[in-house]
Each structure stands twice: as C-alpha cells, then as structure tokens.
Design goal:
Layout (H helix, E strand, L loop, with lengths): L25 H26 L3 H18 L17 H25 L2 H18 L2 H5 L1
Length: 142
C-alpha cells in the first residue's frame, strides 16, 4: 500500500562529524543550572543583607558562596554590602524575600534531580528562612 523510502532523509546526520559543537552531559547541564540558581539567590541575599544586615543572612551568603564556588570552580562575583541610607520599605523587603524563596525553590528542584545533598539541604534551609521573613509583620504579630 505504501511505497518504501528509497533515499536518505535530509534530516539524517549519518556521516556528519559529531564534533561540530560541544556536547555536555546531563550532569554538567544540571551543574550549570544549579550554580546559576544559587548565584542568583546569593545576589538577592546580598541585596537583602545591604538593607537589613543579620547574622543568618551572612551565614547563608557564605554557604551559598561555597556551593557556587564548588559547582563553578571559581568564586562568584558579589556586590559589596553597603548599609542602607534610610529605613527600607516593608513591601520591598517582602518582595526580595519572596524572590529569594522562589530562587531557593528552583535550586532545590535542580539539586534534588542532580542528587546533590549539600545543595538541596542549603536550598531548603534558605527557603525556610525567606518564607518566614516574607510574611508581613502584621500577620506575624497576631
């Protein structure tokens, strides 16, 4: 009923050299993705630290730096934390904490699929810290 295909498909890559572009393994791709999420979380953490310094944020930033350094093979670029000139708006801090919480969640998903226990634990801890900090103070006072 159907006629067999007699010629090679134009989409076939048989005979083409496979070294035209670099290939990365799934693990390498996950490493890159995880390092990116952790570096973004570190940037938001540094921004929050500049507005409201705390020992918890300092410790979290140092641990994030260690993980990004381990994954990338070099230390991440960091903004210098300078003290805020005025009292930051509550809504701005809540927004930053929510952004950090979302980034930590993304890092947790990638760390879990990569089976990276240290990064997964750190991401989960940062999620908890930013979730509690993201609650408006009026709700926390009740």
């Amino acid at each position: 009923m159907y006629e067999p295909i007699r010629s090679k498909s134009v989409h076939t890559t048989v005979g083409a050299p496979s070294s035209d572009f670099p290939h990365r393994s799934r693990e390498e791709e996950l490493d890159i993705q995880l390092a990116g999420h952790l570096a973004a979380l570190l940037a938001v953490t540094d921004e929050i630290r500049a507005l409201t310094p705390s020992a918890d944020l300092d410790a979290g930033a140092e641990r994030l730096t260690e993980q990004v350094t381990r994954l990338r093979g070099g230390a991440p670029l960091r903004a210098q934390a300078t003290p805020a000139a005025s009292e930051p708006e509550e809504s701005h801090l809540v927004t930053l904490h929510r952004r950090a919480h979302a980034l930590a969640g993304r890092a947790l998903v990638v760390a879990a699929s990569r089976a990276d226990t240290a990064a997964a634990i750190l991401s989960a801890e940062r999620m908890d810290a930013h979730a509690s900090a993201a609650e408006p103070r009026e709700l926390a006072a009740r």
